[in-house]
Amino acid sequence: MATALPKVNQNNMCWRANRCSLKNIVAKKNSGVYFLPQQIRNVTYTNTNSHPGPLTANSSPSTTTPPRPLSTVSIKNLIESIQFASVQPNNASSTINKTEQRRGHSPQHFYQNRILDRYVSQPVHTITLRQLVFFGRNLTEERLIQSGNYVRSELPIRLAHRIHDIQNLPFIVGTNPRIAMVYDLYWSAFEKLRQFPPIKTMEDNDAFCTAVKGLLKEHLVVIPQLAMGINECSGHIPEEQINRFMYKMLRSRLSRRVLAEQQIALTENWHDPGYCEEIMSGGYIGVVSTRCNARDIVEKVAKMTRKLSQNKYGIVPPEVLLDGEQDTTFAYIPEHIEYILYELLKNSMCGVIEKHAPASSISRSTRTDNISLSNSSSLPPIIVTICSGPTDIHIRVSDQGGGIPDEIYSHIWSFSSSHKLSDDKKSENKFLNFEKVPKMAGTVEEQEDAMIPPLLHLGIGLPLSKVYTEYWGGALKILTMDGYGTDAYVKITRLGNREENLL
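RESULT FIELD:
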């Protein structure tokens, strides 16, 4: 008769092993998770509650020992009994089997960390915005190849750190199909990038850029899958740990896209005969604009948010008034500051309309052909104030949209939805809107996609804006008066001498 296995706390366990399959080591029975270390080699067992350090499979701890193999347990029966906690617990076993069929192999690479650990042990080499501008402005073929090799060596290091973070999630979170999907994408990209040969010619660089373009397109699903996956696991992981994990993941994602898109843009610039003239006229250097104009950016984003608000509510939206040093120019990545201002103005627009517009005048129809944005609005305006300091640019967005309730304000930077929902309002989970957004790049342009409902609330707009703002050493603060309105303060670097913030 088989000996019962010791029960472990599934939320506080992390397993890392080489040459083992999840199917052969995990079985869930009733409320506990049981581990079968059959065919395990080089197992590292960590109990975050009982032991400060790792315990190897061959060690003899005084209080806890790894589970013993059960030779009498049928592997076939074991596989059939596997269940993972998820949003569909009854179908979890078939889900993991289908996942493995999609991969074409068992998830052994999840624990094969010899190569991964070598990359994790290497430090990340951060850059500044000024370095991007300087390097691109003085571009030569030799420098472009040098830049390509830097990106080629840096991307797998940054990916390795995030793969390591996913591996260190509580076991039950790591088995979520959405988190597993992100893990597979990261692992595949890590393997492709680390195996790419050194760049020696422009032809090599072109091939590298083509490969990276494919990865960027492939990874557009990461933000929706991460958001929904973490939301589904919110009951198994503390809010603080969720936020720490998500901020790291998204900052690293942003940094990798900046490096990749800059190399691609510089390569395209190099093949453009008019590239030098464009630089002299104050245009783009890669993805960086050397002369971002504050007025132009605010007006562009304001026009878009007013149009989307009009389509959603069917009324003339509030006006956006500019104040302060409107002609301020600075070097920045326009996509970043545009996304930040879009999220802030979107929230302000919705707040003002829903507080001040009569309910009878609000229409959810998109039939707004007879409404013109040139018409004046009777709603309180949104005021954007711009201030240029010696080292930073400050932008304030002020509205009279009713403010943010105290119970929500304390969690506006959180990626977790568990605090926002009562038992009778589970269906109102805003993260479920990601089902309508299968891909997301985090840019303003994609907001005009006709397939996406206007001003769709995804629940991560402010946290993601914070990621964008802090990436180059800036800051985003929200002050609110519940019942009246909200002021949002954006600070971005003017000198571009601050390194990437990846923590």
